[in-house]
Structure prediction request, 1142 residues.
Amino acid sequence: MDQHFIFLLLGLANGAVFAALALALVVTYRSSGVVNFATGAMALFTAYTYSFLRQGELLILIPGLPVSEHIGTLSFWPAAALAIAISAGLGLLLYALVFRPLRTAPPVAKAVASIGVMVVLTSLMSQRLGVNPIAVDPILPTNIWTIGNVRVSSDRVWIALVVVAFAFALAAMFRFTPFGLRTRAASENERGAYVSGIRPDRLAAVNWMISAAVGGVAGILIAPIVTLSPLSYTLFIVPALAAAILGRFQYIVPAVLGGLAIGMLQSEVTYLQSQHSWLPSSGLAELVPLVLILAVLVVRAKPLPTRGALIQQTLGRAPRPRRIALTAAVWSVVGAVALAVLQESWRAALVTSLIFAIIALSLVVVTGYAGQVSLAQLTLAGVAGFLLGPLTLSWNVPFPIAPLLAALAAAVVGVVVGLPALRIRGLPVAVVTLALAVALEAIWFRNTDLVPSDGKDIGGPTFLGIDLRARVGTDFPRLPFCLLVLGTLVVVAIGVAKLRTSRLGSEMLAVRANERSAAGSGVHVVRVKLLAFAIGAFIAGLGGALLAYKQGNVTFDSFTILVGLALFATVYLAGITSVSGGVLAGMLAATGIVYLAMQRWLALGDWYATITGVLLVLTVIRNPEGIVGPFHSLLERRSKAQAPPEPAHDGLRAVAPLPERVREPALSVRDVTVRYGVVVSVDHVSFDVPAGAIVGLIGPNGAGKTSLLDALTGFVDSTGSVALAGRLLDGLAPHERVRAGLGRTFQHIEIYDDLSVLENVGVGRTRRGAADLGALLQLVDLVEDAHRPAGELSQGRRQLVSIARALASDPQVLLLDEPAAGLDTTESIWLGERLRDIRDAGTTIVLVDHDMQLVLSLCDEIHVLVFGSLVSSGPPELVKSDPQVASAYLGGTRAEQPTGVA
Amino acid sequence: MAPLLECRDLRAGHGRVTVVRPIDLAVDAGTVLAVLGPNGAGKTTLLSTIVGLLPRQGGEVLVGGKAVKAGRPDVAGRAGIVLVPDDRALFGALTVQENLRVAARRTAGIDEVMDLFPALRLRRRVAAGSLSGGEQQMLAIARALVQQPRVLLIDEMSMGLAPVIVEDLLPIVRRVADESGAAVVLVEQHVGLALEIADDVVVLVHGEVALRDRAASLRGDHARLEAAYIGGSDLFATTN
Prediction:
């Protein structure tokens, strides 16, 4: 028992640091929406600054200047104060230069930028200060306290107390001061802040200084206990993220207590694994934050509270690959010639680049296409790499099968990594994959039970008598192996390019753009996400296997999380949304061909990581499509200038009208009620929609029209029942209702600007729906725009794209939510004609709109919804003359006025 | 005398999409302009652009004859333009008092504004999120008033509120215009109520001005209004 207690107390010191960093994470996130992965690196910088100041040196990280400037030895308080002031300045600088320009960017882009900052800071410090740990004199009293039989050093307790005191002081400041009040207000509602005369960006700048200072305090205090080294401090971020998640990135005190608890638990499990031989000898400590993160994010499945920001930019476009066969052939020849011509270290660097290009392509699939930020792709490559040893040497699996099996195993692990993404989306996926990667590395790759300290040997590949080994004697890398790598890359690249143009690829982009609208188009979101993770992991696994073959012996060094993060940075930098970006990322990757050139010719190899990080941050701010983005735009403009206008489809046929209208109502709504908390938004609404009709649903704002559509399509929980041509839909998920034949569009058109019109419409095809897309485009008069990106179209045509996408599932009933919003009168009339054509082609329509002219001229029957209840139903002439309707539309009291309705 | 708020050739929209085609508006001190029109006509976009929450696509906004920089809510705020947004954008976790303190130019202002809304004074320690719809709307207006606006923009005040409550709130808007001399722009869907307190009326349809007149001359003449609303169709014709 006493031993357990000692280890729990020992963990207090680390716990205090996690707590302080979690506190910094919460403060930064609340004020600016940035999950700052660089928090640990910033604390390390402060700690270094402090330790240099104590020796009379002012640390200067800027390359080209001396590492430090002598300013005379400082005692504790001045040194600490100056270091913390410098840290706050760094926070302000980062906000002003990086995160303020990104304030309207999606959270994922902000997080990627912070990863860039982390890479820059870590590599600058490793480069200028070396990786050798630096010891710092004790700051807090180190008496030995004896409690019963337990003896513990007092500094562990003191550091925890200091951090807790800071947490309560900050919590009180946010609670009671005007600054705190404004910060809370702005973090809850940015729009409200603006209309209250507050400037959220100024508040964010101050909060960044506070969080940098708090992280700095922790960095200084822990320095005497954990010696200073870039790796250990940077990775403090993982348990700190877990603690911040415990505080839901909102609450300071739970985050701080969570941090302390994680530190203590880690210490305890480290003790346990030394006591029990059946426990793995390493990695349990890294499991603690992972388990906590999974428990909170996945089991509770609550998203991080989003901040009510004003506008959101999209991620970069994912351009359609062109002339895949030709491109592949040309680059295969170029690659083969280069491999044959280059010798020794140059050839080795090129083959490394080719392998990293394969792993980078896995990120293109998972992140670029499907929008899931996975920080575990290199770890997944490692899974295949480490499995290849036993597969080839213990079980003698022959060549093409062994790496494929290893990659398949990686795919299985990849699906497991992706499982949490089914319940969470956006940034938490990045956090979970990071924690998983760290845990996997500790519990497997670095575990000497599983991997001998001199690495795991790999059996050399031979195929049909050809020796494909990378190294024979001093001959390295051998050409046959290099060609094998090139061939694999070409196959993978073609596959990834084909995926982009396939139906699954469109579905991935749909999920990336908006999961809700993807589900509304009949996309099975869960399946698409898992496939993306599986395909991505399989590709990463192939890369990992090749890397293992190349080295002949695998150690954890090749697959560490820091290398993985740097690779992620490189891919994002090169262009994470396209095949060319992925391949370029391979060229740019550490120890690859460009790296070698930088080292040989410019002597810049040591600065490689720093430069990558800086470029990454600039890329996120300037150009989300990466380096290759501008080239794609250029190509697109050129091909548009050259290509003659697409001729209309030849084989278009008119859509046959339904042979016979069924007597049964197409849609039957009974007693549907929607409650949000205590508010009843839709109150026992019942009506029937006859087959082949256009039925209007009108009512003032806030009457519950959209809530009713959401209820019918399964987007909100409701009571009552909905039947489509006699088939009950109750309890079905949105995409299942779409497949059953109930299509819908959204009030805010949720089409995918990245995709062409044809691809947008194609997303809507389901297994049931075999709608001929050519005929469909003709029906809605979009044939000429078929191959234009949807983002270029006018508002009216965008509406038609979203309607056509809903029609692609061949719905029996189509629900339209304000299709005329934002259209001028001419466009609205044109839209009405298209809707009539659609009805004549056999689709029953329910139309919600405020454009009275459109509704009155088009609908066979109109229902009027006021305060969630139907107040009037009937043909247009009847509804027009209903006084309740007039009153609902032109002011509530009009009906009561003597001059008003009779 | 020059109008207190003036918009010249103002074009507004989201990204590439233009929602409000070039429009001219002029509102004198102490008067209320009602902006009416069906949903999607661009009323909210217009107000958001005037207050700088959306970038302008063209044209000028002037307060007291001085041009106001586009797309900068803080600059518009210093010029005295204050918006009551349609979603109210309250700080739900903060109390009534705190919501007002966040926005107040001076603390004494809070008390004066509370005089207009005695119901709020009673609930000053309640979280804004727990207020009734009507009280929330009062708080949204009060939060705008403590900023001592010269130009007050109110978007869809009646959204989700029962007509009785709106009938209580609108006279307060009239009083604010009369007593503080602010220029008020009121976007409203309860046409009858809006006409009662407004001085001037503009009807927007599909982002264009379909009708512009004195409120007084429209009060007895709903037919013209309805015609403008629905683009000349005969909705409600039988009822007049």
Notes: The longest helix of chain A spans residues 2-32. Residues 306-313, 643-662, 892-902 of chain A have pLDDT under 50 and may be disordered.
